[in-house]
């Protein structure tokens, strides 16, 4: 047991602790007295349960300001993500809601049930100019909460009603549930999907991304989407030196064999509180190579774990980063020659802006 009453490794979670919220002047810790009391009473100091909390945002579509993210607009039906990916850059955003970027990010999921209505308001606005809106710009729209609440499906129905282009980023096979509406969007070239696959090793996947779909299910999802006319990009993101950096070419081949038309990658960056969360995690999950991996990450980011430089933060620098870029160039030439991810259709929206086909 550690000082917070957690076992040395919490199975089924990425983060192994809660870190202090940067915006709070005060913090708390669990003392040994409390832990001893719980033990004596037969209580669990930390039941490790997921809680769903409804929130009521006034808007749902966000403009993306970062110049090195390949999207202009995004929306997120959920904040926090039970997938528990240890490297997730979105962890820091949970602090704005008053929670920790650590375990809170995985266990306190904020649910925006009014997302479909807010989206429809946006698409009905006379000031809105059609541009692809990406679901999951921050957290996965097909995370486990979607099975319970179905908000993503309702949003896809809104996109189809207005014939508006939508992008999806996910590492969950749950999108297969919605293949009917996804296929209808694809028939008009209104949807593109990026499936994140960071390893072909289930052992690695369970440690780094504990509550995500298995690798087999993700590859099957790529195949299903492709067979239904949906263009699929596979994201090898992030590449983590010493953990999955040796898998770039095998991953690219598996993606191409499953029907993906393109691949992309990012180099891991541990911004904000993620550096502390990742460092704590890797010393517990992979103690034999923890320092080696951390030093490699520092090497690709100018000697620091936290790299916030636009244009550089996702690409990395130095010899290792260039080796990864070279592998990606080779993978595209070897497995994706002549394939392209299409530009989505923006021409139909004006005819359907009022929610039905305009005849005039």
Automatic annotation (TrEMBL):
Record-linked Gene3D superfamilies: 3.80.30.30
Pfam families: Radical_SAM
Keywords: Iron, Iron-sulfur, Metal-binding
Transmembrane feature ranges: none
Keyword presence, Iron-sulfur: yes
CDD domains in the cross-refs: Radical_SAM
Domain Radical SAM core: 76-253
Molecular function terms from GO: catalytic activity; iron-sulfur cluster binding; metal ion binding
Top-level lineage group: Bacteria
Protein name per UniProt: PA0069 family radical SAM protein
């Amino acid at each position: 047991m550690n000082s917070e009453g957690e076992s040395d490794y919490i199975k089924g979670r990425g983060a192994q602790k809660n870190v202090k919220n940067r915006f709070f002047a005060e913090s708390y810790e669990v003392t040994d007295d409390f832990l001893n009391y719980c033990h004596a009473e037969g209580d669990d100091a930390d039941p490790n349960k997921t809680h769903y909390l409804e929130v009521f945002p006034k808007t749902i579509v966000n403009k993306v300001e970062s110049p090195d993210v390949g999207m202009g607009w995004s929306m997120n039906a959920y904040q926090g993500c039970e997938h528990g990916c240890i490297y997730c850059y979105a962890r820091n955003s949970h602090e704005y809601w008053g929670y920790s970027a650590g375990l809170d990010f995985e266990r306190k999921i904020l649910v925006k049930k009014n997302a479909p209505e807010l989206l429809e308001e946006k698409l009905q606005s006379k000031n809105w100019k059609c541009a692809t809106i990406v679901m999951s710009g921050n957290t996965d729209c097909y995370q486990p909460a979607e099975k319970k609440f179905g908000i993503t499906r309702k949003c896809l129905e809104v996109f189809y009603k207005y014939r508006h282009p939508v992008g999806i980023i996910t590492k969950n096979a749950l999108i297969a549930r919605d293949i009917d509406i996804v296929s209808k969007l694809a028939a008009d070239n209104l949807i593109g999907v990026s499936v994140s696959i960071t390893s072909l090793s289930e052992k690695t996947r369970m440690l780094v991304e504990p509550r995500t779909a298995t690798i087999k299910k993700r590859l099957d999802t790529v195949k299903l989407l492709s067979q239904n006319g949906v263009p699929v990009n596979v994201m090898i993101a992030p590449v983590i030196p010493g953990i999955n950096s040796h898998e770039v070419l095998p991953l690219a081949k598996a993606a191409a064999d499953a029907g993906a038309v393109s691949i992309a990658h990012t180099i891991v960056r541990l911004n904000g509180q993620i550096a502390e969360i990742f460092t704590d995690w890797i010393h517990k999950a992979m103690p034999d190579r923890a320092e080696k991996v951390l030093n490699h990450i520092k090497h690709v980011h100018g000697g620091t774990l936290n790299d916030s430089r636009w244009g550089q933060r996702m690409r990395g620098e130095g010899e290792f980063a260039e080796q990864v870029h070279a592998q990606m160039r080779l993978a595209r030439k070897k497995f994706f020659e002549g394939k392209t991810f299409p530009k989505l259709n923006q021409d139909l929206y004006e005819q359907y802006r009022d929610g039905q086909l305009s005849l005039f």
